[in-house]
Amino acid sequence: MKSFSVIQLLLAAAAAPVKAAASWKNVNIGGGGGFVPGIVFHPTAKGVAYARTDIGGLYRLNSDDSWTAVTDSITTDAKWGNWGIDAVALDPQDPNKVYAATGMYTNSWDPNNGAIIRSSDKGNTWSITELPFKVGGNMPGRGMGERLAVDPKNSKIIYFGARSGNGLYKSTDGGVTFSKVSSFTAVGDYIVDPTDANDYNNDKQGLAFVTFDSTSATINGATSRIFVGSATNTTSSVWVSNDAGATWSAVAGQPGTYFPHKCKLQPTEKALYLTYSDGTGPYDGTAGGVYRYDITNGTWKNITPVSGSDLYYGFGGLGLDMQKPGTLVVASLNSWWPDAQIFRSTDSGATWSPIWDWAGYPDMNWYYGLTSPNAPWVETGFISQDSKRLGWMIETLEINPLDSDHWLYATGLTVYGGHDLTKWDTVHNVSIQSLAVGIEEMAVLGLASAPGGSELLAAVGDDCGFTFKTSADLGTSPKTPWMNPIWASSVDVDYAGNKPANVVRIGSGSGSPQVAISSDGGASWNAHSGTDTSKTSGTVAISADADTIVWSSGNAGVLRSSNQGTFTAVASLPSGAVIASDKRNNTVFYAGSTTSTFYRSVDTGATFTSVSGALGSAKSVRDIVAHPTTAGELYVSTDVGVFRSTDFGASFSQLSGVSNTQSISLGVGSVAGKWNLYAFGTGANGNKLYATADNGASWIDVQGSQGFGAISANKVVGSGNVPGQVYVGTNGRGVLYAQVDVSGGSPPVTTTSSVVKTSSTAAPVTSTSSKATTTLVTSTVKTSSSVKITSTSSVKTSSSTTSAAAPTGTNLAQRWAQCGGIGYTGPTVCVAPFTCQKQNDWYSQCL
Ligand SMILES: *[C@@H]1O[C@H](CO)[C@@H](O)[C@H](O)[C@H]1NC(C)=O
Ligand SMILES: *[C@@H]1O[C@H](CO)[C@@H](O)[C@H](O)[C@H]1NC(C)=O
Ligand SMILES: *[C@@H]1O[C@H](CO)[C@@H](O)[C@H](O)[C@H]1NC(C)=O
Ligand SMILES: *[C@@H]1O[C@H](CO)[C@@H](O)[C@H](O)[C@H]1NC(C)=O
After folding, report:
1. Residue 416's pLDDT is what?
2. Mean pLDDT of 362-380
3. Which of 200, 236, 309, 474 gets the highest tally of CB atoms within 10 A of its CB?
4. Mean pLDDT over residues 357-372, rounded?
5. What pLDDT does residue 393 have?
6. Over 427-474, what HEC string results?
7. Whether the CB of 587 sits within 6 Å of ligand 4
8. Which residue pairs, CB below 8 angstroms and at least 24 apart, start in 304-310?
């Protein structure tokens, strides 16, 4: 693949020092790995299309079916919400223009208001207009849409349907400014759960879509007829203006039940097609419908492909073939068992054919072939493990407007598609592939790089985790995720310093052991037999000689297992303690509490004693990293910066220059025998990733202009094997890596005083010039408040766990998993607090 050869070039060039701000690229996990709520094609410029993700930004389609991330540069620590894309719109008259509504949450989790971003160069550069309210790219109903649209007759006119009861907004200057359309009052007041204690499901859902009727008359240069959908199932949800947005009325005769998800115009037919579901998505739906609205004569027709007991799901994705009016495809939003269903009609919905049907239960006719050569793990970990081959959470299903054979649809796992869709109508068999190359959407929860062992171990949300044996593998999507056991999410991973082939990982599920060990560097795994099925989550450390595992669990305090024995409580550590193993001395472990007490153990983690006053004025310990090759040397990241010890934690000195540090790591340096220290924290250029090769005497901004989202959500790990190579695990943009040259620090480009002054006024200095490396000399930089990300990533993680096959031996079904139905033999009791709810005779689900 293309990206592979780029990797080869990078490695070949590794000997030449990189002086400029580092150039970051993705590790190729491939397959996307998360939910893609929307894909939009340009109506007239062939091949111009964008895919939006809920927490990992916007991607542009390339001619070879791969995708390029286009919102990294605007997603900084302060504006991490810019990776939440709630809507995307293209200008029908100018294929270079693209607009998106950004913001992650409408509740307190995202501190910032949302924005409409606009680009005139296909997303290479952006201008940003902040809105006076929040936007929820990772909120319920994010697959409805698109709620942002450009007038096909007037590039200056843009409408945005907001959430939270904020109503309809309009720009008349090409997205520079927006103002409220006061005449539009149907603001979409449906709330999923008004009493939600997590503060996530208790917001007004707002508006669902804006659809212009390009066949209508033009009034004062504007399209006169505009349809707007609102999230309600108790009154009319589809509204129309016939006077270019001046006045609005409910469309007569509409179904008035269920929530509209998609509304698309077929101009030749002068008809709207709409999909409906009884929930707002993206995980729900037990009934729904598909409708056709004839604009000329104002009639609605129910064209739902199934009825009666076959109708046990709602409808989401809707694709119209613009080359063949009357030909369309629709998808079940969530048919959790046995699989998603996709229907195609060539007669405007009068008749339909399915993409699969029963060939005498339990056999099925698959009128498709499904492969994943671009991301083999999608096949090994999911397609071959789960009856849901075609996917779930299908909110977007698109036919290229200029190519009837080219189609794409997205799921909670990946983007699927193909180039022979019209074969559905001839041989009734189409070829589907995962077509998500370049979409790297993983929420990375733990990273390790073992000197002399596996180059990269990535614990991720929703897709378990991945091993890259050597640096040469980083460009190749893995053949398999971590399996046997496969969990939805792995939350941490560690290797044994003296025996780097010994690796441990932990998961965040329940109902099965959530510790797994490997003795071949993370290629194959076994569940750890020393834990019961109730303990879960947290962080993990394995002793240097691999005989002892200390687990700071998420729900059962700190635990320890020796020689694969039963995990028992470590009474001397508080629950939630940050832990680490000495990488050389098997008897030594380190720990820190959130109240900044530092502890160490010299009896292989059996007991810990506190070291009083070790960490100065620090009030919380964020991370502990032991030197990969030197016993007794360690670094502790705190709210006031990094502390270093060379005597097994007996005493520390504080490094200057970077404060309020988060994830830290050591990696092989550019000079033989030297190690770089990497730290996310507050330095001269703001909240970014910095590196030092001289224990903080000088620091370099190695992040450059690359966005990583919130620094508190990132995991950094230096390569244990490749000089100057460093990895960043993000919350929604996969793993990015770069080659950096930190040898001895570089001369400052600005004077000491101006650097300090700039940073103390919290105005980040950013530059991509080759002189961007900056030396910091004091630690007087202002610390900024950290971003609350823990809860946000847990929403993402828990919300998409449908994908993983239930671990074998499980006696409890996970959230979203099947828990009953005809022919079902798995667990029928759900993990608390979820209950088994019957969806239909064939499928009950933990909700
Ligand atoms: C609207 O949808 C919600 C969620 O599915 C459901 O609980 C409620 O009963 C529906 N209301 C009506 C009037 O159908
Ligand atoms: C409306 O138009 C459709 C075709 O677009 C036709 O099938 C239908 O009969 C018409 N209905 C009325 C009431 O004229
Ligand atoms: C459709 O093609 C695939 C392989 O391309 C094949 O596995 C499948 O059996 C075919 N379906 C039918 C119904 O023949
Ligand atoms: C390992 O740590 C123990 C406990 O501090 C110490 O007694 C021993 O000397 C250390 N061994 C090495 C090789 O550093």
Report:
1. 98
2. 97
3. 474
4. 97
5. 98
6. CCCEEEEECCCCCECCEEEEEECCCCCCCEEEEECCCEEEEECCHHHC
7. yes
8. 305/330, 305/343, 305/345, 305/349, 305/352, 305/354, 306/341, 306/343, 309/840, 309/841
Give the list of residues 6+ apart from residue 486 with CB closer than 8 angstroms, or none: 381, 385, 464, 804, 805, 807
| CB of 342 closer than 8 Å to CB of 390 | yes
**Is domain 30-434 in CATH 2.70.70.10, yes or no?**
no
- Atom 12, ligand 2: residue with shortest CA distance: 297
Residue 442 beta carbon below 6 angstroms from any ligand 4 atom: no
Residue 822 CA: distances (Å) to CA of 362, 365, 830, 840: 11, 19, 17, 9
Fold of 444-739: Methylamine Dehydrogenase; Chain H (2.130.10)
User: How do beta strands 430-434 and 368-371 pair?
Assistant: parallel
Confidence at residue 764, expressed as pLDDT on a 0 to 100 scale: 27
639 CA distance to ligand 4 centroid (A)?
30
Q: Please state the φ and ψ torsions of residue 757, each to the nearest 5 degrees.
A: -65, -45
Between 575 and 825, the more confident residue is: 575
Choose between 174 and 811: higher pLDDT: 174
Q: In which band, very low, low, confident or very high, does the pLDDT at 483 lie, cut at 50, 70 and 90?
A: very high
Query: Would you say residue 808 has pLDDT above 90?
Result: no
Asked if omega into 111 is within 30° of 0 (cis), the reply is: no
Predicted local confidence at residue 486, as pLDDT: 97
Catalytic residue among 321, 462, 623, 741: 462
pLDDT value, residue 829 = 72
Task: Report the pLDDT averaged over residues 241-266.
Answer: 97
Q: Give CA–CA dist 478/490, Å, rounded.
A: 16
Ligand 3 centre distance from Cα of residue 365 (Å): 8
Tokens linked to 534: 């109730």
C-alpha 251 to ligand 2 mean position (Å): 16
Q: How distant, in Å, are the alpha carbons of 360, 818, 821 from that of 841?
A: 17, 12, 6
Q: Average pLDDT of 28-51?
A: 98
CB 294 near ligand 2, within 6 Å = yes
CA atoms within 13 A on the CB side of 820: 14
Tokens linked to 517: 């060990």
d(CA 661, CA 621): 9
Catalytic site includes residue 54: yes
**Is the minimum distance from the CB of 299 to ligand 2 under 6 angstroms?**
yes
pLDDT of residue 818: 72
Instruction: Give a three-class secondary structure readout of 234-284.
Output: CCCCEEEECCCCCCCEECCCCCCCCEEEEEEEECCCCEEEEEEECCCCCCC
**11: pLDDT strictly greater than 50:** no
Type of residue at 213: D
For residue 314, which of 339, 355, 279 has the smallest C-alpha distance? 279
Give the burial string for 71-102 (b: 16+ CB within 10 Å, else e): bbbbbbbbbbbbbbbbbbbbbbeebebbbbbb
Whether residue 821 is predicted with pLDDT greater than 70 in this model: the reply is: yes
Q: Strand 396-399 and strand 368-371: pairing?
A: unpaired
C-beta of 429 in contact with ligand 3 (< 6 A): yes
For the Cβ of 307 lying below 6 angstroms from any atom of ligand 2, the answer is no
CA of 99 to the centre of ligand 4 (A): 60
Q: Which residue is closest in CA terms to ligand 4's atom 10?
A: 585
**What is the rounded average pLDDT for all residues in the chain?**
89
**Confidence (pLDDT) at 689:** 97
Task: Give me the residue label for tokens 């046995």.
Answer: 338
Say whether pLDDT at 570 is over 50. yes
Q: Which one, of 486, 252, 534, 509, lies nearest residue 380 by Cα?
A: 486
* Percent of the chain's residues with pLDDT above 90: 84
The phi and psi torsions of 244 (rounded to 5 degrees) equal 60, 35
- Residue nearest ligand 3's atom 6 by CA: 369
